[in-house]
Amino acid sequence: MATVAQLQQLIPQVRRDILRMVHQVNSGHPGGSLGCAEFIAVLYNHVMKYSTEFDMDGKNEDLFFLSNGHISPVFYSVLARSGFFPVAELATFRKLNSRLQGHPTTHEGLPGVRIASGSLGQGMSVAIGAAEAKKLNNDSRTVYSLHGDGELQEGQNWEAIMYAGSKGIDNLISTIDYNKQQIDGSTNDVLALGDVGAKLEAFGWIVIDVKKGNDIEAIIAGLEAAKAASGKQKPVAILLHTEMGNGVDFMMHTHAWHGKAPSDEQLATALSQNEETLGDY
Amino acid sequence: MGLKEYTFTEKIDTRSGFGVGLAELGQENPEVVALCADLTGSLKMNAFKDAHPDRFFQIGIAEANMMGIAAGMTIGGKIPFTGTFANFSTGRVYDQIRQSIAYSHKNVKICASHAGVTLGEDGATHQILEDLGLMKMLPGMTVINTCDFEQTRKATHAIAAHYGPVYLRFGRPSVPNFTTELPFEIGKGILLQEGTDITLVATGHLVWEALEAAKSLYALGIRAEVINIHTIKPLDDALILQSVKKTGAVVSCEEHNYLGGLGESIARVLAEQHPTPQGFIATQDTFGESGTPAQLMEKYGLNADAIVRKAQEVIAKKA
After folding, report:
1. Spatial CB neighbours of A109, under 8 Å, sequence gap ≥ 6
2. Which of A33, A36, B57, B195 could form a disulfide with A73 if both were Cys (CB 3.0 to 4.6 A apart)?
3. Three-state DSSP class for B26?
4. B62 and A163: CB-CB below 8 Å?
5. CA distances (Å), A95 to each of A27, A79, A100, A258, B279, in order?
6. Each residue of B268-283: pLDDT tens digit?
7. Is residue A235 part of a domain?
8. Beta-carbon separation of A59 and B103 below 8 A
9. What per-residue string of b and e applies to A246-279 under the rule 16 or more CB within 10 Å gives b?
10. Structural domain boundaries, residue A156
11. Chain B partners of A63 at a C-beta cutoff of 8 Å?
């Protein structure tokens, strides 16, 4: 289990990976990736129990499903730096014949990925299925999932949210990346989500609010609280208040960097704000 | 060459073959789980549900969620069978199947009843005639359309033993149950009737109609070969080519739009390897409507009489 100090070292390196990957192919989604760097780094290095000898069934392991697949850069960086595949392979992101497709897939056999995602709104159903399979297998580990807040506009989520609440899927911890931004603008302008926490509670979920969604210790505390709340016949949600583009000053407080790559100059500025701690790929 | 006689002890729906097969599988294989979107009775899943309540998942009227949950349950080694009407098993959830099941290569068995116009009185909203096309276009998807109770029962067993996503299509009307003594192997067509003048390639509810048509044609002096293709994909190219090289004419018979169905798959094989006059017994790019199954089969040209007429037309085109 990584210490907070080790996580503090890892995160700027993950940010550098994200920025360099997206810059290299002049495409991809840096904003949400940067916003979730702390969360995914903490999940894989401080919370989840798993083997990097990847096995699709993941029996007796904690599992993670990324529903908002467009933030693949952060997912790939953390998987590589957690030992699932060589860090050097990050250089193949979005290139021909790569296992690191624009959106995550099982199709090319990348270790650590258990479902394709990209077309939004499907990941919670999959996570519920994996949680049901764990119950049938008497497997006491936990299933984690991550969803964009804008993604909640997809109706399938609410089918899944209703199912998990009604059937008491209590080995599932679903986190909402609550950055209040999406491609076309703020979620309030595009299609207001209303009180997400109250809606989840109305569907029978336990909701844990993490106000400082880019703070390592706050994330750890939130995940620990979620773990403590699980196993009580209710699914658990974390509302993770994040800042899109976190860690790069000009990418924050805007939706502009949802799906745009930095120029050479912008990359240099962004990298100057994030120290190379563990070696670039 | 005489005409082979096929007999049956009863007329029964293909969906009941699925129900019996699923219940048998439940006893044999503890990894088999069943999911249903509020149509347990219609899909004949009650026997499985009663015997294995812990492995039966009532999802409610939420088919997209059902497909996703099924995909997730394969992670952990389960073999999920989803059950709902064909319309809600395919068109309604195409993207869920495409991304979470087909592209992700999950071992999900999509089991679909009430396919085609023989659904009857409920009408066109429920009578999907595009499902075979939708499913066969997905890379890696196995597509099966069974013709009677016994074939559906055997197919249900076979798809559990096969790793990978499968679409199994069956239906509601009672049809002769005649394949009791015939083997079932995924991807292997069945030569039901030997003939020399034309090949009738039939799937699903049209198989019995093709056998009846062969009898009528025999009386007219036309020797029709009848092949049952239950597996639309992967298609048994070899069996079809072998027959067509002998007869020089083919009629494909299916309860589906002629766009995207079995007929088009056959036409592709023949165009590439052995161009042959072909007739299509299928719906002609139209929606269905309310009526009894027999009335609808008559109106949409999907019965033995229509096959006889089409066979004569195609034979006339032979060089």
Report:
1. A99
2. A33
3. helix
4. yes
5. 11, 18, 8, 20, 46
6. 999 999 999 999 999 9
7. yes
8. no
9. bbbeebbeebebbebbbeeebbeebbeebeeebe
10. 4-272
11. 75
Give the C-alpha separation, B257 to B264, whole Å: 10
> A63 — phi, psi (to 5°)?
-120, 150
Prediction pTM value: 0.98
CB A244 within 8 A of CB A258: yes
Determine, for residues B59 and A163 on separate chains, whether the beta-carbon distance falls below 8 Å: yes
B127 vs B86: CA distance, rounded Å: 8
In a domain, A207, yes or no: yes
Domain that holds residue B236: 190-316
Question: CA nearest B255: which of B149, B189, B175, B158?
Answer: B175
Sign of CA dihedral A110, A127, A65, A115: positive
Beta strands in A89-177 (DSSP E): 143-148, 172-177
Domains in chain A, number: 1
Q: Which of A58, A117, A133 sits opposite B78 (nearest CB)?
A: A133
Q: Which of B31, B63, B272, B289 is catalytic?
A: B63
Is position B63 annotated as part of the catalytic site?
A: yes
CATH of the domain at A98: 3.40.50.970
Chain B neighbors of A134, CB-CB under 8 A:
76
ipTM of the complex: 0.98
| Contact state of A163 with B60 under an 8 Å Cβ cutoff | yes
